Amino acid sequence: MSDSFNVERYQAAPLYDLNSAKAVRYGRDGWLVRVQGPESIARIPIEGISFEGKYTVPKRYLRIISDTVQFNIINVVDVKNQNICTLEKVGNEWLVRSMNPVTSGRHKPPHAQETPTGLFVVQEHKSKMFYYEDGTKTYAGFAPYATRFTAGAYIHGVPVNNPNGSIIEYSESLGTIPKSHMCVRNASSHAQFVYKRSKDLASLVVVID
Questions:
Q1: What's the maximum distance between 2 C-alpha atoms anywhere in the chain?
Q2: Is 85 annotated as catalytic?
Q3: Boundaries of each L,D-TPase catalytic domain copy (predicted)?
Q4: Helix, strand, or coil (residue 84)
Q5: pTM of the prediction?
Q6: CATH for 2-61, options being 1.10.10, 2.30.30, 3.30.1490, 3.90.470
Q7: Which of 107, 111, 125, 183 is catalytic?
Q8: pLDDT tens, position by position, 122-154
Q9: Is 183 a catalytic residue?
Q10: What does the buried/exposed string (b/e) look like for 121-146 if buried means 16 or more CB atoms within 10 Å of the residue's CB?
Q11: What pLDDT sits at residue 2?
Protein backbone atom coordinates (compact mmCIF):
# COMPACT_ATOMS: atom_id res chain seq x y z
CA MET A 1 0.00 0.00 0.00
CA SER A 2 1.34 3.43 -0.92
CA ASP A 3 0.12 7.03 -0.79
CA SER A 4 -0.37 9.56 -3.60
CA PHE A 5 3.34 10.45 -3.35
CA ASN A 6 4.27 6.81 -4.05
CA VAL A 7 5.61 6.29 -0.52
CA GLU A 8 4.80 2.81 0.76
CA ARG A 9 3.21 2.28 4.16
CA TYR A 10 5.75 -0.39 5.10
CA GLN A 11 8.50 1.03 7.34
CA ALA A 12 7.03 4.53 7.05
CA ALA A 13 5.46 6.98 9.50
CA PRO A 14 1.88 8.27 9.19
CA LEU A 15 1.73 12.04 8.72
CA TYR A 16 -1.42 13.81 9.87
CA ASP A 17 -3.11 16.95 8.61
CA LEU A 18 -2.62 19.83 11.05
CA ASN A 19 -6.29 20.79 11.11
CA SER A 20 -8.32 17.62 10.61
CA ALA A 21 -6.07 15.20 12.53
CA LYS A 22 -6.46 12.82 9.59
CA ALA A 23 -3.55 10.74 8.28
CA VAL A 24 -2.94 12.09 4.78
CA ARG A 25 0.39 10.60 3.68
CA TYR A 26 3.40 8.53 4.75
CA GLY A 27 6.84 9.76 5.74
CA ARG A 28 9.84 7.71 4.67
CA ASP A 29 12.14 6.25 7.26
CA GLY A 30 15.19 8.50 7.51
CA TRP A 31 13.58 11.70 6.28
CA LEU A 32 14.75 14.88 7.98
CA VAL A 33 12.16 17.19 9.57
CA ARG A 34 12.11 20.29 11.74
CA VAL A 35 10.16 19.95 15.00
CA GLN A 36 7.64 22.79 15.30
CA GLY A 37 6.09 22.13 18.71
CA PRO A 38 6.64 20.61 22.16
CA GLU A 39 8.17 17.13 22.24
CA SER A 40 5.96 16.07 25.17
CA ILE A 41 2.69 15.63 23.25
CA ALA A 42 1.49 12.45 21.53
CA ARG A 43 1.60 13.88 17.99
CA ILE A 44 4.32 16.41 17.34
CA PRO A 45 4.00 19.21 14.75
CA ILE A 46 6.74 19.02 12.12
CA GLU A 47 7.86 20.77 8.96
CA GLY A 48 9.52 18.79 6.22
CA ILE A 49 13.14 19.33 5.23
CA SER A 50 13.37 16.21 3.06
CA PHE A 51 9.89 16.99 1.70
CA GLU A 52 7.44 19.88 1.54
CA GLY A 53 4.64 20.55 3.98
CA LYS A 54 3.67 20.75 7.65
CA TYR A 55 2.07 17.83 9.48
CA THR A 56 1.91 16.12 12.85
CA VAL A 57 3.51 12.74 13.48
CA PRO A 58 3.22 10.32 16.43
CA LYS A 59 6.13 10.87 18.78
CA ARG A 60 7.30 7.24 18.61
CA TYR A 61 8.33 7.69 14.97
CA LEU A 62 10.75 10.53 15.69
CA ARG A 63 14.40 10.40 16.67
CA ILE A 64 15.35 13.81 17.99
CA ILE A 65 18.68 15.18 16.75
CA SER A 66 20.32 17.99 18.69
CA ASP A 67 20.28 21.33 16.91
CA THR A 68 24.02 21.52 17.57
CA VAL A 69 24.67 18.68 15.10
CA GLN A 70 26.30 19.78 11.86
CA PHE A 71 25.96 17.57 8.78
CA ASN A 72 29.49 17.82 7.40
CA ILE A 73 29.45 14.56 5.43
CA ILE A 74 27.03 14.08 2.52
CA ASN A 75 26.97 11.02 0.25
CA VAL A 76 25.28 11.83 -3.07
CA VAL A 77 23.99 8.81 -5.01
CA ASP A 78 23.08 9.34 -8.67
CA VAL A 79 20.81 6.45 -9.68
CA LYS A 80 20.59 7.63 -13.30
CA ASN A 81 24.34 7.56 -13.85
CA GLN A 82 25.05 4.84 -11.26
CA ASN A 83 27.69 6.60 -9.20
CA ILE A 84 28.31 8.02 -5.74
CA CYS A 85 30.17 11.10 -4.54
CA THR A 86 31.17 11.76 -0.93
CA LEU A 87 31.42 15.42 0.09
CA GLU A 88 32.90 16.87 3.27
CA LYS A 89 32.46 20.40 4.56
CA VAL A 90 35.72 21.93 5.75
CA GLY A 91 35.35 25.50 6.96
CA ASN A 92 33.04 27.17 4.45
CA GLU A 93 33.92 24.86 1.55
CA TRP A 94 32.52 21.54 0.38
CA LEU A 95 35.29 19.21 -0.76
CA VAL A 96 34.92 16.13 -2.95
CA ARG A 97 36.44 13.25 -1.00
CA SER A 98 35.59 10.39 -3.36
CA MET A 99 33.72 9.40 -6.53
CA ASN A 100 32.93 5.78 -7.39
CA PRO A 101 30.62 3.64 -9.55
CA VAL A 102 27.67 1.92 -7.86
CA THR A 103 24.75 -0.37 -8.54
CA SER A 104 21.42 0.85 -7.17
CA GLY A 105 18.08 -0.90 -6.63
CA ARG A 106 15.97 -2.23 -9.49
CA HIS A 107 12.22 -2.65 -9.82
CA LYS A 108 11.57 -6.38 -9.61
CA PRO A 109 8.67 -7.14 -7.24
CA PRO A 110 8.12 -8.62 -4.80
CA HIS A 111 11.69 -8.77 -3.47
CA ALA A 112 13.56 -5.97 -5.25
CA GLN A 113 12.70 -2.30 -5.57
CA GLU A 114 14.31 0.94 -6.68
CA THR A 115 16.52 2.93 -4.34
CA PRO A 116 14.23 5.77 -3.21
CA THR A 117 15.27 9.29 -4.11
CA GLY A 118 15.44 12.10 -1.57
CA LEU A 119 17.39 13.36 1.42
CA PHE A 120 17.99 10.93 4.28
CA VAL A 121 19.84 10.81 7.59
CA VAL A 122 22.36 8.01 8.16
CA GLN A 123 20.87 5.83 10.90
CA GLU A 124 22.78 2.62 11.41
CA HIS A 125 26.02 0.77 10.65
CA LYS A 126 26.64 -2.96 10.27
CA SER A 127 30.09 -4.36 9.58
CA LYS A 128 28.28 -7.29 7.94
CA MET A 129 24.69 -6.96 6.75
CA PHE A 130 23.39 -10.52 6.37
CA TYR A 131 20.59 -11.15 3.89
CA TYR A 132 18.15 -13.96 3.14
CA GLU A 133 17.49 -15.90 -0.02
CA ASP A 134 14.48 -14.25 -1.65
CA GLY A 135 11.23 -15.40 -0.09
CA THR A 136 12.91 -17.44 2.67
CA LYS A 137 14.42 -17.10 6.14
CA THR A 138 17.62 -18.81 5.02
CA TYR A 139 20.78 -16.72 5.07
CA ALA A 140 22.24 -16.40 1.58
CA GLY A 141 25.24 -14.22 2.36
CA PHE A 142 26.31 -10.81 3.57
CA ALA A 143 27.27 -7.37 2.35
CA PRO A 144 30.24 -5.73 4.10
CA TYR A 145 30.45 -2.22 5.56
CA ALA A 146 26.74 -1.43 5.41
CA THR A 147 25.49 2.09 6.17
CA ARG A 148 21.69 2.30 6.45
CA PHE A 149 19.85 5.45 5.39
CA THR A 150 16.20 4.41 4.88
CA ALA A 151 14.12 1.28 5.53
CA GLY A 152 16.11 -1.64 4.10
CA ALA A 153 18.40 0.54 1.97
CA TYR A 154 22.12 0.51 2.76
CA ILE A 155 25.27 1.75 1.11
CA HIS A 156 27.41 -1.38 1.21
CA GLY A 157 30.18 -3.38 -0.43
CA VAL A 158 29.97 -6.21 -2.96
CA PRO A 159 27.62 -8.96 -1.71
CA VAL A 160 29.20 -12.28 -0.76
CA ASN A 161 26.84 -15.16 -1.55
CA ASN A 162 28.12 -17.24 1.35
CA PRO A 163 27.48 -16.28 4.99
CA ASN A 164 30.97 -17.53 5.88
CA GLY A 165 32.75 -16.22 2.79
CA SER A 166 35.48 -13.62 2.40
CA ILE A 167 35.00 -10.02 1.34
CA ILE A 168 34.99 -9.41 -2.42
CA GLU A 169 36.44 -6.08 -3.55
CA TYR A 170 34.83 -5.44 -6.93
CA SER A 171 32.00 -6.41 -9.28
CA GLU A 172 31.86 -5.78 -13.02
CA SER A 173 28.24 -4.65 -12.66
CA LEU A 174 29.23 -1.49 -10.75
CA GLY A 175 28.45 1.65 -12.71
CA THR A 176 26.24 -0.17 -15.25
CA ILE A 177 22.54 -0.76 -14.53
CA PRO A 178 20.43 -1.10 -11.36
CA LYS A 179 20.69 -4.66 -10.03
CA SER A 180 20.35 -4.39 -6.26
CA HIS A 181 17.28 -5.13 -4.12
CA MET A 182 17.11 -1.53 -2.82
CA CYS A 183 20.62 -0.86 -1.60
CA VAL A 184 23.52 1.02 -3.17
CA ARG A 185 26.29 -1.45 -3.95
CA ASN A 186 29.89 -0.15 -3.98
CA ALA A 187 33.37 -1.55 -4.30
CA SER A 188 33.97 -2.91 -0.81
CA SER A 189 36.90 -0.60 -0.04
CA HIS A 190 34.77 2.41 -0.93
CA ALA A 191 31.87 1.09 1.16
CA GLN A 192 34.35 0.92 4.04
CA PHE A 193 35.36 4.53 3.34
CA VAL A 194 31.71 5.66 3.56
CA TYR A 195 31.13 3.43 6.59
CA LYS A 196 33.96 5.04 8.55
CA ARG A 197 33.20 8.65 7.61
CA SER A 198 29.39 8.68 7.88
CA LYS A 199 28.29 8.92 11.51
CA ASP A 200 24.83 7.90 12.71
CA LEU A 201 22.40 10.84 12.94
CA ALA A 202 25.19 13.22 11.88
CA SER A 203 25.64 12.48 8.14
CA LEU A 204 23.36 12.58 5.12
CA VAL A 205 22.61 10.54 2.02
CA VAL A 206 21.07 12.34 -0.95
CA VAL A 207 19.71 10.13 -3.74
CA ILE A 208 19.09 11.88 -7.07
CA ASP A 209 17.95 10.71 -10.50
A1: 55
A2: no
A3: 73-208
A4: strand
A5: 0.94
A6: 2.30.30
A7: 183
A8: 999 999 999 999 999 999 999 999 999 999 999
A9: yes
A10: bbbebbeebebeeeeeeeeebbbbbb
A11: 81
